[in-house]
Amino acid sequence: SNAQYDPNNVFARILRGEIPAERVCDSKHSFAFYDISPAAPVHILVVPRGAYTDFHDFTSRASNDEILDFWKLVDKISAEHSLIHHGFRIISNIGPDSGQEVPHFHIHMLGGKALGPLLS
Ligand code: 5GP
Hints:
Blueprint: H1 10-15, E1 23-26, E2 30-34, E3 42-48, H2 55-61, H3 64-80, H4 83-86, E4 88-91, E5 107-111
Antiparallel strand pairs: 1-2, 2-3, 3-5, 4-5
The protein binds guanosine-5'-monophosphate.
Guanosine-5'-monophosphate binds next to strand 2.
């Protein structure tokens, strides 16, 4: 178990179906949906169904099956949404210095235009 995890965070509520989200794709252990405030023409969020606060928590506590399922879903989305043809960006905010807002591990998939330099 993870005592740090807040089960009422917004992505936990989306996973439980308590608040709506625009579904992109899902798998046994993972779920993908559109960001409510897109920062690029394509802005998809991918989350594990399990209760993990951030990338480190996920990588250290999730099963190999959950971890493989997650990254395979990311790759599948990149193909199905034509992101791989023009390129795209993956970002995960981890902890306070990153400005992580939602304490449920997620990655942002950003694409659909030339994104420019990450650091500017
Ligand atoms: P973070 O800063 O935690 O990496 O990013 C959280 C992301 O979740 C933000 O890009 C924000 O727009 C998105 N977000 C926050 N609340 C909701 C929501 O209720 N639904 C959806 N689809 N996205 C949300």
